[in-house]
Amino acid sequence: MPTFEEARSLILDSVAPLGRERVPIVAAAGRVLSEDIRSPWNMPLWDNSAMDGYAVRSADCRAPSTLELTGYQAAGGTVAPRVTPGCAVKIMTGSPIPEGCDAVVPFEQTVEEAGFVKILAAVRPREHIRFRGEDVKAGDLIVPAGTVLRPPEISMLASFGRAFVPVYMKVRVAVLSTGDELVELGSPLPPGKIINSNTVSLAAAVEEAGAVPVLLGIAADDKDGLREKIGEGLRADVLVTSAGVSAGDRDFVREVLADLSVEEVFWKLDIKPGRPTAFGMKDGKPVFSLPGNPVSSLVTFEVFVRPALLKMMGHPDPLKPMVKALLKEPIRKKAGKVHFFRVKIDVEDGEYVAWTSGDQNTGILRTMVLANGIAVLPSERTAFNAGEKVDVYLLYQSATPK
Ligand code: AMP
Ligand code: MG
Fold first, then answer.
1. Which pLDDT score, from 0 to 100, does residue 19 have?
2. Ligand 1: residues within 6 Å at CB?
3. Torsion angle defined by CA atoms of residues 203, 338, 248 and 252, in that order, rounded to the nearest 10 degrees
């Protein structure tokens, strides 16, 4: 049986980026750039004013002086003619510096009167000018392939006129819930049945990872029904099933996957929750069989499925970095399994601190709701003291339940 880390490596080694496409830049946020992008021109394109004020020849202003106003250089307007000695041009931020000028004097350091401007203090050359190419030179690598596009990268690409950007494709993830006890959300709930919540929670997790969920609904615990739904799921890029992978009488998911030539890579891991998790491959497509417990399915999604989806969508570093968090209370566990502990994380004196979010039984969803982190507690350890630092995955970006 592979260890947790080995299982995750097996998964990551099995998958590769899906493909590339060009998308409108407004749709590119959060996507991974698939090609190096170089700047087609200098930025800024021309020397321009960093302030609203007056463009001057600094040689005229070694001391307080008065200059004749010979032009007005508006933002976006035509460029004022060459400025001759003793003259100045009124200029707005971002406007091209007229020929002959080598400095800008902000309004605050001037007094304008009857076609003349008094410069109140000495001016040094190059003051308040943004120079051609000082931000980016033509041909510079502005955003390398493999970058997750955030608003700053979008800004940079847009400022060079990129309306479309090359990115890795989004992964389509089929989500199938299995179990005779399930009814769809919105249907009547007969005695003995429960609502299929995993389809929607896993779909939400798929979306949160930046991929596209394809909802397959419920398959009953019978082989024919499962075969049909799983066959449908294998048309997506990834298939995620929940439940039916334990050792129960009617746990047929693995058998049906095998019938459909899905090659099992592993089944069962020494982890808690998530012991019965199975992973297989068919024609380059990964198939994750997650346990049915709502907590187990979300935790195993987080530690196994999410990194695989990110890798398939071109993320160069699909494993979320762990943070060290200082335990505020002791934790006990049994030896022999890696435990994924639901914890509440906060920041105290600039350091992450962690409390357990409560009952860690896999049947308790409430403590998953209360958690904003998953502490990864090594298999062999049994006792963790208050004050000790543990490894934690921060969940769902900035959520900080109190
Ligand atoms: P199983 O993995 O089939 O043994 O299911 C484990 C537990 O998860 C059982 O209590 C199931 O009723 C529950 N469960 C299975 N599938 C779902 C689902 N789609 N939504 C909510 N609970 C589920
Ligand atoms: Mg079941």
1. 97
2. 177, 179, 181-182, 194, 196-198, 242-244, 246, 248, 291-294
3. 50
